[in-house]
């Protein structure tokens, strides 16, 4: 009888370790931008995420590197845990801290006028259900046209 109960507990524990991949469906609506120091910003972003799992998942504090035209310009940090509701595709408004390390406005303007501007996010995000966690790779690249770039820069007070 003890073997059956032990087997049941071990089976239940191992089945709880399985994560279905969380699906990142995009980001939208950058708002509430505040500058707190030289190159330090706090922003709110709406993330659309699908959690197909049968349990809530908490995204833990994480750092993501930000690149503009293949040059690192800073780091975005999620400082607080975000709870993803089970079996739900939802929009989660999240506060992020952005540390701008270096930004060459001349190169940005030159690329916007004569070429393409790309923004890329790279890093790992840790998520879990308590004692079980998993790291997810983030590697997203978007091309910005001249209007989108100008709008983004103006939101951060970096008008060209």
Q: Would you kindly provide a written description of the structure presented here, covering whatever features stand out?
A:
The chain has about 160 residues and is of the alpha+beta class. It has one domain (about 20-155): Immunoglobulins (Immunoglobulin-like). The chain has helices at about 1-15, 105-115, 145-155, and strands at about 25-35, 40-50, 55-60, 60-70, 70-80, 80-85, 90-100, 115-130, 135-145. Strands 1, 2, 3, 4, 5, 6, 7, 8 and 9 form a nine-stranded antiparallel β-sheet that branches. The radius of gyration is 20 Å and the shape is elongated. The mean pLDDT is about 80.
Record the SSE blueprint.
Elements lengths: L1 H15 L6 E15 L2 E12 L5 E3 L2 E7 L2 E8 L3 E3 L3 E13 L4 H10 L2 E12 L4 E12 L1 H10 L5
Give descriptors for this structure.
Immunoglobulin-like, 9 strands, single chain, 160 residues, alpha+beta, nine-stranded antiparallel β-sheet, 3 helices, 53% strand
Brief summary:
With 160 residues, this protein is an alpha+beta fold.
Number of strands: 9
Biggest sheet statistics: 9 strands, antiparallel
CATH superfamily: Immunoglobulins
CATH C-level category: Mainly Beta
CATH topology: Immunoglobulin-like
Following the backbone from N to C, one meets helices and strands in this order, namely HEEEEEEEHEEH
**What structural class do the secondary elements suggest?**
alpha+beta
What is the count of distinct domains?
1
The termini sit apart by 74 Å
Helix content: 10-25%
Please name the CATH architecture. Sandwich
